[in-house]
Design a protein that fits this description.
alpha/beta; five-stranded parallel beta sheet; 15 helices
Length: 492
């Protein structure tokens, strides 16, 4: 690309024109930024399927892949469209398309507090962001609950034309995928709409059938996840309505979706996503409650919502305080488990129902932050093969559904079988969950507050985030920048 740009410049002696000509010849995704010694006050950049935002300050201009890079200096930003080229000088900018025609970038205001992108005395960004999980939930809820009703203007505008949602398809990757899996249960239970969750990077390559009445929900913290962006385009081209759940203003996926629901988690700097996970789950729970309020409900109490849904809203409002309780009270228990896990070669995590995706999220965090192999699978699958790997001392983390429920009793039985075979089982469960004192020495328990079972992922995931960070700390791993990983996956 640099050689092509140099050749174009030699024939034109116009850096902007050279950039347009170069970008027009290239295939694939790119953000290109160029300077020339003959034009010291000029920076030219172009984008296609890759992030580029412009910050406008007083007598200064910023080009960056994310608004967090210039949030300390200005909150005024412009989102460049596909195949647009910007020429920036201290006096201002000129934006064109690849043919040189003037283009109008979309302006927006950065609503992040600049201090939120700083460590502020924390040992790592991951530690800071885990501690910000209560605030991420609070901010995602703020202004969207009114007198026991859910207010989502973003969805009202999307569905105003009488679109009937017959099916919901969630597309995401990594942590965002597990957030979608965790919320799927509520979308079906509360809204009564069949919901499926697919990995975005697999979706369009199997030539899927996008049926009439399908609402496609994409989830991405950065809004630049290339696999998710391409899947969203594929779905939209086939007539689906697309809703983006995103944390980053001005990013590509929201701009190419029919509507966007911002999570308001604030800047997330650490590569391993934590507070974004809880914010994404909360945003999807709000979608579920909003859709539930659009149809008549049995036993409707207020605003078209049933007593069950109204109770769910009350429970949701308690979640930030309950997360804070976990953060403040369970650290000694988590650190004790981390001290044992730091030297083991492999860890198993078990979950059932709504807690299965939480187990998978916990395994992902352990792998990417501490480099310890961790595998999560449904507890019901234990007898179908994996129990052959259970031996004395094998570390297992079990996420226990509430006692008194059918799944709670089944998990209780599973835990007893594991302990009978000498496994070192740590149970994460609500108050009154699986006891820890009937297992071998070292078995432990991490307690989370009681809540609506469909909200339990928001609490059960917190000690797993804490545990991954603690294990990484014992092993001396930089939790903010794990090897081989990037914060935004902008290639397929």
């Amino acid at each position: 690309a640099a050689w092509l740009l140099a050749r174009e410049y030699r024939s034109r002696h116009d850096l902007g024109a050279a950039m347009r000509a170069t970008a027009a010849r290239l295939e694939g995704a790119f953000t290109l930024v160029a300077m020339h010694r003959e034009h010291p006050g000029l920076v030219v950049a172009a984008r296609r399927d890759s992030p580029l935002v412009v910050g406008i300050g007083e007598g200064e201009v910023f080009l960056a892949s994310d608004v967090a890079a210039f949030a300390d200096n200005t909150r005024h930003a412009l989102a460049l469209g596909q195949n647009q080229v910007v020429a920036a000088t201290p006096e201002g900018i000129v934006v064109t398309d690849l043919a040189g025609r003037p283009a109008e970038p979309e302006p927006f205001e950065v609503d992040w507090d600049p201090a939120a992108a700083q460590k502020g005395g924390w040992p790592s960004f991951m530690a800071k962001e885990i501690d910000e999980e209560p605030a991420a939930v609070t901010d995602t809820l703020r202004g969207r609950l009114d007198g026991g009703r859910v207010r989502l203007p973003e969805l009202e505008g999307l569905l105003a034309a009488g679109f009937s949602v017959r099916k919901i398809l969630i597309l995401a990757c990594g942590t965002a995928y597990y957030a979608g899996e965790a919320a799927r249960h509520a979308l079906e239970a509360w809204a009564g709409i069949p919901t499926s969750v697919e990995l975005a990077h697999e979706f369009r390559y199997r030539e899927p059938l996008v049926e009439e009445g399908t609402l496609v929900v994409t989830i991405s913290q950065s809004g630049e996840t290339m696999d998710t962006l391409m899947a969203a385009r594929y779905a939209r081209e086939r007539g689906a309505l697309t809703l983006s759940v995103c944390n980053t203003q001005g990013s590509s996926i929201p701009r190419e979706s029919d509507a966007v629901l911002y999570t308001r988690a604030g800047p997330e700097v650490a590569v391993a996503s934590t507070k974004a996970f809880v914010a994404q789950v909360v945003a999807l729970l709000l979608v579920a409650l909003h859709l539930a309020g659009r149809v008549p409900q049995t036993g409707a109490a207020r605003g078209g919502l049933s007593d069950l849904h109204a109770a769910a809203i009350e429970s949701l409002l308690k979640i930030p305080g309950q997360i804070r309780t976990v953060l403040d009270t369970q650290r000694p228990a988590v650190d004790a488990v981390a001290a044992k896990l730091a030297a083991v070669p492999s860890i198993f995590l078990l979950g059932r129902g709504v807690l299965l995706p939480v187990a998978r999220e916990g395994a992902l965090k352990l792998k990417e932050t501490s480099y310890v192999h961790a595998e999560a699978f449904p507890a019901g699958e234990l007898k179908h093969g994996p129990i052959a790997l259970i031996e004395p001392g094998r570390p297992v983390i079990a996420l226990a559904p509430p006692q008194g429920t059918l799944l709670g009793a089944k998990m209780d039985s599973t835990v007893q079988e594991l302990r009978a075979r000498g496994a070192d089982v740590t149970v994460i469960g609500q108050v009154g969950g699986v006891p820890a004192d009937d297992g071998p020495a070292g078995s432990g328990r991490v307690v989370i507050p009681e809540t609506d079972p469909l909200l339990s992922p928001l609490l059960a995931v917190v000690p797993l985030h804490m545990l991954a960070m603690a294990v990484a700390g014992v092993r001396g791993v930089d939790v903010d920048q794990p090897r081989n990983l990037a914060k935004s996956v902008t290639v397929e």
